[in-house]
Amino acid sequence: MAGNTFGKLLKLTTFGESHGEALGGIIDGFPAGITIDFEAINNDLRRRKPGQSSIVTQRKEEDEVQFLSGIFEGKSTGTPIGFLIANTNHKSGDYSEIKKTYRPSHADYVYEQKYGIRDYRGGGRSSARETVSRVVAGALAKQIVPNIKFTAFVSAVGEISLDKKYQDLDFSIIEDNVVRCPDSEKAKQMEQFIKAVKKSGDTIGGIITCVIQNVPIGLGEPVFDKLHADLGKAMLSINAVKGFEFGGGFESARMRGSEHNDLFNEDGTTKTNFSGGIQGGISNGMDIYFNVAFKPVATLLQKQDVLTNQGEIIELQGKGRHDPCVVPRAVPIVEAMAALVIADSFMLNKIFK
Amino acid sequence: MAGNTFGKLLKLTTFGESHGEALGGIIDGFPAGITIDFEAINNDLRRRKPGQSSIVTQRKEEDEVQFLSGIFEGKSTGTPIGFLIANTNHKSGDYSEIKKTYRPSHADYVYEQKYGIRDYRGGGRSSARETVSRVVAGALAKQIVPNIKFTAFVSAVGEISLDKKYQDLDFSIIEDNVVRCPDSEKAKQMEQFIKAVKKSGDTIGGIITCVIQNVPIGLGEPVFDKLHADLGKAMLSINAVKGFEFGGGFESARMRGSEHNDLFNEDGTTKTNFSGGIQGGISNGMDIYFNVAFKPVATLLQKQDVLTNQGEIIELQGKGRHDPCVVPRAVPIVEAMAALVIADSFMLNKIFK
Amino acid sequence: MAGNTFGKLLKLTTFGESHGEALGGIIDGFPAGITIDFEAINNDLRRRKPGQSSIVTQRKEEDEVQFLSGIFEGKSTGTPIGFLIANTNHKSGDYSEIKKTYRPSHADYVYEQKYGIRDYRGGGRSSARETVSRVVAGALAKQIVPNIKFTAFVSAVGEISLDKKYQDLDFSIIEDNVVRCPDSEKAKQMEQFIKAVKKSGDTIGGIITCVIQNVPIGLGEPVFDKLHADLGKAMLSINAVKGFEFGGGFESARMRGSEHNDLFNEDGTTKTNFSGGIQGGISNGMDIYFNVAFKPVATLLQKQDVLTNQGEIIELQGKGRHDPCVVPRAVPIVEAMAALVIADSFMLNKIFK
Amino acid sequence: MAGNTFGKLLKLTTFGESHGEALGGIIDGFPAGITIDFEAINNDLRRRKPGQSSIVTQRKEEDEVQFLSGIFEGKSTGTPIGFLIANTNHKSGDYSEIKKTYRPSHADYVYEQKYGIRDYRGGGRSSARETVSRVVAGALAKQIVPNIKFTAFVSAVGEISLDKKYQDLDFSIIEDNVVRCPDSEKAKQMEQFIKAVKKSGDTIGGIITCVIQNVPIGLGEPVFDKLHADLGKAMLSINAVKGFEFGGGFESARMRGSEHNDLFNEDGTTKTNFSGGIQGGISNGMDIYFNVAFKPVATLLQKQDVLTNQGEIIELQGKGRHDPCVVPRAVPIVEAMAALVIADSFMLNKIFK
């Protein structure tokens, strides 16, 4: 396997399987002399944690991060930050069934084909539990660029979606509801809907919108590493993500240039922002905003046909504690990946300007 | 500037400005011993070339590629392939106006802010002319994986979009119409629409769909470098792209798990393919398919407000030879970037299995 | 800080300070399906460990490695291997003196200048304790290429050096003496000499020779990543290393082409091996051999002038448990770095041939 | 083939075979706004050029560099600098002999084994002609750090070597003699010796010393990417190099700590400089100096046994225009590689401090 490192100058490398000893990572390139806000890190971990509310999985994972290096007397020293999150909740369960079967729309089958071996316990490396390391790193990345504000929220669950623009929403209420939606009416509908879906043993997809404010002009490298290309890759690397659009997004494809062009004000800001804060791959100082589409969770609490390693189709009853809808818990993950990209671009931009 | 290299093992590094001496690149990591099909490369260049039809820009660019190394007696030697495309069409025009102004939704302003200097002639490095090097490299990448079939086509222009699934389309007619749409009725409508838009001095967005067939199981690295994350980054790095979705895409966000899960057949193939040929970041042998949204071209043949480097807003009349709609010419670019990602993954997969 | 990752496909990223919680690393790119020989890893750790004999430091470090991921039921799964070595021996000592002073020929001063902050306890990240992670990774790397034999040994301590060619030495006795020298007479002299140097509160430099046997033809990339350039960088990245030469080495500079050229046998082997097993950056199947020069340890058990952070020179009495000569314990480190380079090249060579 | 890119932020990628169309490269990461001194580039090319004097090869290569991008109105724009050097001198010679034979101590045999194919004309990619691109890039790199002074010179040819320390030499006379040695007496001896060696159809090795002055404190990354490890790799990547040592070098291995430690002055400089300007991988502001050993050129103007691709040993008479001693022409190459490493470290250091 390759590709367990993310970033150019601010580099996060992660390890860990769902039911192994621990998950964790190393952040190389973190600048020296930053006073670490541990509470902010713990807060983002709490937001990602299972068992927060009735609409997310009831698994108990402590998700306590332990820092092993790179921080001395409360400050970053510039050396790599090693950290781990112990897997305290892995039971020595009965894996005889899962060991021999490939669940639909999971990575079981392709892992076995690609590696000839897999840690089948709880999905192994393909488990979304892997994102806990991203949240730790993202929470640290935010501290490199304290003036930049990252706000992600749920903008759609199934057919229920926000009908307001992000500018008209009250971000301060996002954490007040279990869905993490900045429209309390919609939040209630979404919550009810997720509960109903859960009751039927089914799952549902959703969309997260992320807004990045107060971004300096000049972040991003204008050819292959366009700022939105790096953001897109970051989002598409999150489990269950199926699509990414920024600024006008897919709607831009239906528009004319005369509508879509963002006319300048005299100070270099623009009157509209279909560009989504990025021109030619470079941040232009306007808000960056994008949408990330998540598919419904593949693990159902229903009977489902699965493939065995003997090439047979058998019926298997899904069980366990799983999320009926992934988006509420994915909000801090989207922010974390956005922060990693922006902090990295910020550091790179110090050189080439 | 950083980020002029794309790929992990098959690495394309490009250079060149719109009106400089030449554009070109170096492909490192191209395997030895492949008999190069030069006609295939020229064909892809022809498809990207300006002046092919009445709905694309009438600029004349020869776009003849010259190979400088890495090929000996018709075969690749394994050494880096250096190539260039001379800029034969750059006129010593009058740049006094463009030099001082920043066009809306172009990269003029951010380049100047980021670098303090820019080659203002024809957009410099931010010009889509840069993609000519990608097409050369992509055409070579296809030859590394000759059994894999890359097919991109226009699936929407403004509000006009295909209503058939890709499986029901006749790919053999894509190159028979100037729009590159595999539905001749829709192609005609699109062509008429683009002509009308052009006549009004305006531009229009569109969507390209790409289908990759006959992909072996196992391509892609399952954490940060998921196959679809790399494809997404590749597409988002193309000029004017605003969104990327694969498989079920944004529609997946509205679906339930019981609908969206792709049940297995006994041979490991799946009955449906909402996954878009990729599970957990790894190809599963089914068709890979994705959509790429392009915004309308920012250069209008109308009067438009622009910003000057003195901080004034003035009116400027757009002129020159520009595409009213970028998607017909972007079809080979989408294929090229897809081929670069797939060939790279293919090579990487030789090791880690 | 950057540069805590080593390798192209087999990537080792390390973290950890001398007196922090733990040291450790992540190995990304380790192939799947290899049955891990844990005893071999522990053996290499034992060889590097302090307190093995009277001529090395008497510090007690347990150096027990804990694997956190990537290994399942005794086999590698292809996922990243996370590991750590807890720092069990760090005493809450009195650091008030060292905190304010910069020791000569240590990294204290440059760390403070570069980062504005340093973990002064035991040298922090600049401590050779960092190499423990390299030994773990190197021991794993050897298991990727089990047919290739890595043998490092001490060939000089101060003025005492081997006068035989490596072909005339008995590698089987290397571990029989505390110096790790394959000539028992010389080993005794070296041991006596080190003891005498130690008694005087001084330290002494030395040379390690490494021989790599049974290397397949074709490893190495012939331009910037020549096999010997990668080996050289690997060796020069080890603490206290001042020089690297391979094959004829510095002696080649005094030779004529007619002496130095390695004439072929009919089977492609060569009659002589001044090339050191590498031609044009590519292994040619002959033994690879090289020398690595280590400076004397900078920490003396004598009084020495040091610089304070107030810009004063004061006298400081060196104390503690330190190596009088680093080469006996560095033998497994040299092997480890050699194994990382060779295994990485071996993997890369699978693709480009 | 991989590894045709050198550098982390300042990245040089090269292409080109000895007798192909052209050699050249792309420099990505070159900062914007630098007024390019073309004369300085041409001067370094002239120093590397064949045919400068009677002791170097009499081949005529124009070595004129053509810049294709990245420079506008005399200044760098920040975009990648593409450049090429046409191969004007390649004759359509008779290659029937060389095609079938592998010369001793050349890369012919290993290329054929590794790639299954090779451009046999003049050594192809393994020719030292490849270094022409390095000289162009190095001359540009020097302009990023104009205050840092790079001085390389010949310090030994065969048994004739300088007996003075570099501090006692007059660098201003280096270019006054054909050997590029800053001791006119020794220079004469060396010149006579090279002529005698040449007359006998033989070749001779040598050593180049490089001194880098006025380096700021803090360059280099202290673990795997120690400044001297990167310099070492850079030097070892030059054709014919067999060894690298910096500061005390191999001599350090014979010294005691009490002799070798560099005691501080109150201003942070040191009284001695056995460290060679680098502590713990980080520049300390003192002069950086190192030696690079070159083997004798493998091409002799004598009869020599060669291997054929039929597995036979036959006698071949060496002919053509070749250097009897490579070091005089390698002086600007050593400087170029040093400048690439230092400028790269300089840029990286802007971020992590």
Automatic annotation (TrEMBL), chains A, B, C, D:
<comment type="pathway">
    <text>Metabolic intermediate biosynthesis; chorismate biosynthesis; chorismate from D-erythrose 4-phosphate and phosphoenolpyruvate: step 7/7.</text>
</comment>
<keyword id="KW-0456">Lyase</keyword>
<keyword id="KW-0521">NADP</keyword>
<protein>
    <recommendedName>
        <fullName>Chorismate synthase</fullName>
        <ecNumber>4.2.3.5</ecNumber>
    </recommendedName>
</protein>
<comment type="subunit">
    <text>Homotetramer.</text>
</comment>
<dbReference type="InterPro" id="IPR020541">
    <property type="entry name" value="Chorismate_synthase_CS"/>
</dbReference>
<keyword id="KW-0057">Aromatic amino acid biosynthesis</keyword>
<comment type="similarity">
    <text>Belongs to the chorismate synthase family.</text>
</comment>
<keyword id="KW-0288">FMN</keyword>
<feature type="binding site">
    <location>
        <begin position="239"/>
        <end position="240"/>
    </location>
    <ligand>
        <name>FMN</name>
    </ligand>
</feature>
<feature type="binding site">
    <location>
        <position position="280"/>
    </location>
    <ligand>
        <name>FMN</name>
    </ligand>
</feature>
<dbReference type="GO" id="GO:0004107">
    <property type="term" value="F:chorismate synthase activity"/>
</dbReference>
<keyword id="KW-0285">Flavoprotein</keyword>
<feature type="binding site">
    <location>
        <begin position="125"/>
        <end position="127"/>
    </location>
    <ligand>
        <name>FMN</name>
    </ligand>
</feature>
<keyword id="KW-0028">Amino-acid biosynthesis</keyword>
<dbReference type="Pfam" id="PF01264">
    <property type="entry name" value="Chorismate_synt"/>
</dbReference>
<dbReference type="InterPro" id="IPR035904">
    <property type="entry name" value="Chorismate_synth_AroC_sf"/>
</dbReference>
<feature type="binding site">
    <location>
        <position position="321"/>
    </location>
    <ligand>
        <name>FMN</name>
    </ligand>
</feature>
<dbReference type="InterPro" id="IPR000453">
    <property type="entry name" value="Chorismate_synth"/>
</dbReference>
<keyword id="KW-0274">FAD</keyword>
<feature type="binding site">
    <location>
        <position position="48"/>
    </location>
    <ligand>
        <name>NADP(+)</name>
    </ligand>
</feature>
<feature type="binding site">
    <location>
        <begin position="295"/>
        <end position="299"/>
    </location>
    <ligand>
        <name>FMN</name>
    </ligand>
</feature>
<comment type="function">
    <text>This reaction introduces a second double bond into the aromatic ring system.</text>
</comment>
